[in-house]
Amino acid sequence: MKRAGTVAVTAAALAAVLAVGGCSSGGGPGEDPKVSAERAAKEKAEREREEKAERERIEKDRAAMTAVAVKFRTAVNAHDGRTACPLKTVEGRYGDSLEKCHDFYKPPGGRKPDTEQRTKVTVTGGPVTVPPFENHPGGTGLMVTQETPGDGGRVHVKRDALRMVKVDGAWLVDQDKEVLDSEMSDPSPVRSALTRP
């Protein structure tokens, strides 16, 4: 009987210790409701800050990618290889050097690059994931729409799909392909153009 009484006292003492420990640990069943609510509010605020920071990072990254796409296509329209070529990946450039790439974009007849930007260049739609194709790596596809005013108030529209890849933290153009009118009815015209032989 003495042994049983000792065990009972020891168990009671242990339970008391655990109760005190649970109360001071934060989060146990004995936690003050006010403390619990404050802790939950702090955790929620921290999650919201992290989520907001991630959204801002994604939007900033997307804006940087879009800016490169517009700058590249605008330079190509102006036959400005000095601007366009550094915005392409080494593998995606025409020629095996920057100088040869510059020559590729030179305007016909030896004319100077056209600095009068009559064509409006915009990125339309959202980015899409594009798989590797031939010698191109997987990346992000964008549709760049070009609107050039013509005679009689008409506007000529041309669409290009650009395969964007990140190299050393910077967005570059790896592939530039015209989007055909027949591809506009596809679920993803950009992906269709960038995987067309």
Oligomer: single chain
Number of domain units: 1
Query: What is the helix tally?
Result: 5
Radius of gyration: 31 Å
CATH architecture: Roll
Low-confidence stretches: 1-26
Within the largest sheet, what's the order of strands? 1-2-3-4
CATH topology (fold) name = Nuclear Transport Factor 2, Chain: A
Q: Describe the biggest sheet?
A: 4 strands, antiparallel
Give me the secondary-structure topology.
Blueprint: H1 2-25, H2 33-77, H3 81-84, H4 98-104, E1 120-130, E2 139-149, E3 155-167, E4 170-178, H5 189-194
Antiparallel strand pairs: 1-2, 2-3, 3-4
Description:
The chain is of the alpha+beta class and 197 residues long. The chain has a single domain (41-194), classed as Nuclear Transport Factor 2, Chain: A (Roll), CATH 3.10.450. The chain is built from five helices and four strands. The protein has helices at residues 2-25, 33-77, 81-84, 98-104, 189-194; strands spanning 120-130, 139-149, 155-167, 170-178. It has a four-stranded antiparallel beta sheet. A hairpin with a 5-residue loop joins β2 and β3 (155-167). The radius of gyration is 31 Å and the shape is elongated. The termini are far apart. The model is unreliable at 1-26 (pLDDT under 50).
